């Protein structure tokens, strides 16, 4: 197995970091460069990355999202945003109409581009002997974070990434059975027992932060009334008219 495959197959999430560890500027730059080298639709690169090092700013993020104290305790916190502001500037420069708000497609493209950049950043951090954890729950405070970062029209926060030197060793978390995820040529129905099997795997994994079975956690999540916070933000940023 080559080194890259070893990194990918042994990737794990870390939430406990050495608060005294200073991330070398060279390492941070390598992570950012690797993120920017990710694939993107038509090479559009419809995302931006905010490097958050200021302790006061990071404390504010934790105050809004107390379940993720690592946003303050890690060496650096990155925020990935969908960026359709850049293309709006380009449209204005050429005195052309810009219809990004007329379809969900630009938002999907920007989200996908940002996700690919995030994946590269995670792998780059791993390769440097660092740990990281992705924070999707920042979307619960999209409006406040947008104001905190002074995001212009066309930018919307998607997820964060804490990076630092781990102080607690983590186990590799097993994923869903392959038959529930991978299809060859066409969809093939699978038995619900595969989900139950994964519930058992995750119960044996015994992650302290999980209080419900994997399947129940998502049953409850999707049975709840949507908050539509991101929907409201997209409308506010004139990225989603309907």
UniProtKB/TrEMBL annotation:
Q: Which UniProt keywords apply?
A: Flavoprotein, FMN, NADP, Oxidoreductase
Identify the Pfam families for this entry. Nitroreductase (PF00881)
Keyword Flavoprotein listed: yes
Q: What is this protein called?
A: Nitroreductase family protein
Q: Which SUPFAM superfamilies match?
A: FMN-dependent nitroreductase-like (SSF55469)
The family line of this record is: Belongs to the flavin oxidoreductase frp family.
Matching entries from InterPro entries are given as: Flavin_OxRdtase_Frp (IPR016446), Nitroreductase (IPR029479), Nitroreductase-like (IPR000415)
Q: Which domain of life is it from?
A: Bacteria
Per the record's keyword annotation, is RNA-binding included, yes or no? Answer: no
Originating species: Enterococcus larvae
The segment(s) forming the Nitroreductase domain are: 9-165
